[in-house]
Design goal:
Structural class of chain A: alpha/beta
CATH superfamily of the largest domain in chain A: Thiolase/Chalcone synthase
Largest sheet of chain A: 9 strands, mixed
Oligomer: heterodimer
Largest sheet of chain B: 5 strands, antiparallel
CATH class of the largest domain in chain B: Mainly Beta
CATH architecture of the largest domain in chain A: 3-Layer(aba) Sandwich
Number of domains of chain B: 2
Shape of chain A: globular
Order of helices and strands of chain A: EHEHEHEHHHHEEEHEHEHHHHEE
Distance between the termini of chain A: 24 Å
Number of strands of chain A: 11
Strand order of the largest sheet of chain A: 3-2-4-7-1-8-11-10-9
């Protein structure tokens, strides 16, 4: 089998309102996001023969993809829920392309929607496990454990993590859809309360209601549609999988192997990347991913993210719509939506000049899963 | 003992022996009888050699801090009464790493590499939690 690089494309992107959005179910957010993505592509439900969805983080019932297909009016088609936490986003696009290549479908929607702010309490409030007996609860602690190790091994500082939060908020201030648009300073970051030390509040992503979706089809079909196709050049996946306490390393993540696979498949290297949309559930996640992708040496992420290097106009603009830290805490689909819009040149005041190639990461658990996509216009 | 209001461990078929030993203030983990690898958390086979033969071997209870965090945010009413508190990954002398609490130590003295030893804390009649304190501290 030859490489699937450049043979499949993202032809539609869409999302709902982001932030605190009462009155919409998790199914509802998925449906509205898919509707928007199909409109963007100039397609209808008749054109869709595959539906992939990430389960809502705040809880879901089995056969969630079936309930979604029913609400979309789609039957007798390919469907699946994928369970890789945040990395589901990147993997859905990969499995969509593979399914089309295998002849199982021609046009696949990949979606995520959830209502953790206004819906019934679920995962975000759950306290019940061996870990919880030691007070190890919530999402920040595991990442904070990894960040502490990075600080010890490489001298990374809280101020360096803060530079990431400040940069992404600056980008969000140019994004009318972003949940948080008011710029912050490094001092704001340092003064924000501790959540789980070494993380301040402003090291942590938002919690958000909303939905977002993309449409994947073949390169041939993509050329006949509404918008300029964004081709999937390369992809990778690597899932460290084990519990945080058992992990071989807390300072090298699945991004290393996943990134190497994606760069090899795409036939490009980090110096060819015009912008990066890096999963930033916490500031540290973005820092370690940039290192593992090879944008800087291991241990040098702290200095790499300073002095505007990852800001618009810098050497490697990252999270140009604000990321999970400032645009939407939804796990990563908005990063992919933004990468596509940048490569189409649709981003107005935050447009990266002449953006040709982008990388988008997604990861989940506590650095437990990782997926990479390299895209080109 | 007043009723303990914090979250309890949730033993499974695999992990019930670990917690039963903890109740007796014994830190025991499964040691492979074929290759000698000590595994944690509990499992039906050795993840190194896939042997099904193992014993619940006694651990020294000594190790070092691999990483650590301090919870300031309280996730629920019980934790509101105990923040700030330290959670750590401790690497045992025998190899395995485990999630635990660091106790009997000022939070600003905790560091990666610090030698620690197990100190069981009885929380109910059924459960004692294996926490760790600085080595040699009474």
């Amino acid at each position: 089998m030859g490489s699937l690089g450049d043979k499949y494309a993202i032809v539609g992107v869409g999302h709902t309102k982001l932030g605190k959005v009462p009155g919409v179910s998790s199914i509802g957010f998925n449906v509205l996001a898919i509707k928007a993505a199909l409109e963007d592509a100039g397609l209808t439900r008749e054109d869709v023969d595959g539906v992939l969805v990430k389960y809502p983080t705040s809880g879901f019932s089995s056969l969630f993809s079936g309930k979604l297909c029913q609400a979309l009016g789609i039957t007798n088609k390919l469907m699946a829920v994928i369970d890789l936490a945040g990395a589901t986003i990147g993997t859905m696009v990969q499995y969509a392309a593979m399914a089309i290549d295998a002849g199982l479908a021609t046009t696949v929607v990949c979606s995520y929607g959830d209502n953790p702010l206004t819906g019934p309490p679920g995962t975000y409030g759950r306290v019940n496990s061996d870990d919880a007996a030691f007070g190890f609860v919530g999402a920040p602690a595991g990442y904070a454990m990894a960040a502490r190790r990075h600080m010890k091994e490489y001298g990374t500082t809280s101020e360096q993590l803060g530079a990431i939060a400040v940069a992404f908020r600056k980008h969000a201030s140019m994004n009318r859809n972003a949940q948080m648009q008011k710029p912050i300073t490094l001092e704001d970051h340092q003064r924000s309360r501790w959540v789980v030390e070494p993380f301040h509040l402003l090291d942590c992503c938002l919690v958000s209601d909303g939905g977002a979706a993309v449409v994947v089809t073949s390169a041939e079909r993509a050329k006949t549609l509404n918008k300029k196709p964004v081709y999937v050049m390369g992809w990778g996946q690597a899932h460290p999988a084990w519990d945080i306490a058992q992990r071989e390393s807390l300072t090298v993540t699945g991004a290393k192997r996943s990134g190497e696979m994606a760069f090899k498949m795409a036939g490009v290297s980090p110096k060819d990347i015009d912008l990066a949309e890096i999963y930033d559930c916490f500031t540290y996640t973005a820092l370690v991913t940039l290192e593992d992708y090879g944008f800087c040496k291991k241990g040098e992420g702290g200095s790499f993210v300073q002095n505007g290097r990852i800001e618009l106009g810098g050497e490697l603009p990252c999270n140009t719509a604000g990321g999970l830290l400032s645009e939407s805490g939804m796990p990563g689909m908005l990063l992919l939506v933004e990468a596509v819009r940048q490569l189409r040149g649709e981003c107005g005041p935050r447009q990266v000049n002449n953006a040709e190639i982008a990388i988008a990461s997604s990861q989940g658990g506590i650095l437990t899963t990782h997926a990479t996509l390299i895209l080109r216009r | 003992m007043t009723e303990y209001a914090g979250p309890l461990p949730t033993p499974t078929i695999d992990t019930a022996p670990f917690w039963e030993h903890c109740r007796k203030h014994e830190l025991r983990m499964q040691k492979c009888l074929d290759c000698g690898h000590v595994r944690y958390p509990a499992s039906v086979i050795c993840p190194k050699c896939y042997s099904e033969n193992s014993e619940w071997a006694s651990m020294s209870g000594k190790g070092t801090i691999y990483s650590w965090v301090v919870f300031h945010q309280a996730y629920g009413a019980f934790f509101a009464g105990i923040v700030p508190y330290a959670v750590a990954i401790v690497e045992l002398a025998e190899g395995p790493r485990m999630l635990t609490n660091i106790i009997a130590c000022p939070l600003d003295e905790i560091d990666i590499g610090m030698p620690v030893e197990v100190a069981f804390e009885d929380i109910t009649a059924e459960f004692a939690l294996p926490k760790f304190r600085p080595l040699g501290k009474p």
